[in-house]
Design a protein that fits this description.
elongated, PqiA-PqiB_transport, three-stranded antiparallel sheet, Butyryl-CoA Dehydrogenase, subunit A, domain 3, two-stranded antiparallel ribbon, cell inner membrane, membrane, cell membrane, single chain, Paraquat-inducible membrane protein A
């Protein structure tokens, strides 16, 4: 037997203090922190889709365009994210290359896949693996706290590829696009309403 969900029990979770509020007694405002209560985020699916697709489009120039230009006594070089991974791997720094690859490729792609899965299953009103999908979303929230690390790791470690004692490093447009991808995926995670996973029918109200 499927346990009742919060809506069936007349409860609503406050997103600020995480208090389970009784809607009959407090239909609009959380009694503990005074925040506005809402059963579901309005247009959560449409807004999250828009953010995810925009981030996915920007992810292409983030990987194609160079992120750093290095000038030193050895010469000038311009590198992309994946180019820095290949260079570091060839020079034997496989551990640093792995860190850059995970931060700049593994994490963003995982976000795209998980958010896409959650959006598709919620849109279809799927009742399968609700607990697992909720855990996936909580995992995305956890990753979100470290999302900006992607930008700093990619920028700082790419700078080490050919950085000498005498030289200058200048950012290139690729790092801007990559930063926008990180921000948009964070906003997409925040705009998604995990309570929709537990709705029997797809609900975008």
């Amino acid at each position: 037997m499927t346990p009742p969900v919060a809506a069936e029990l007349g409860l609503c979770l406050c997103h600020h203090c995480h208090l389970a509020c009784e809607l009959e007694r407090h239909p609009h405002v959380c009694p503990r922190c005074g925040a506005h209560l809402h059963r579901r985020k309005r247009s959560a699916i449409a807004r999250t889709w828009a953010l995810v697709l925009t981030a996915l489009i920007l992810y292409i120039p983030a990987n194609v365009l160079p992120i750093m230009h290095t000038s030193s006594f050895k010469g000038d070089s311009t590198t992309t994210i994946l180019g820095s991974v290949v260079t570091l791997w060839q020079e034997g720094a496989w551990d640093i290359a792995t860190i850059i690859f995970v931060a700049s490729v593994g994490v963003p792609v995982t976000k795209f896949l998980v958010l896409g899965l959650l959006l598709c299953t919620v849109h279809r009103g799927s009742e399968r693996s609700r607990r697992d999908r909720t855990r996936l979303y909580r995992g995305l929230e956890l990753i979100g706290y470290w999302s900006m690390l992607d930008v700093f790791v990619a920028a700082l470690l790419t700078a080490l590829v050919q950085f000498g004692a005498l030289g200058t490093i200048e950012p290139r447009p690729g790092i801007l696009f990559f930063g926008l991808v990180v921000i948009l995926t964070m906003l997409a995670t925040l705009s998604f309403d995990p309570r929709l996973i537990w709705d029997t029918d797809a609900n975008d109200d």
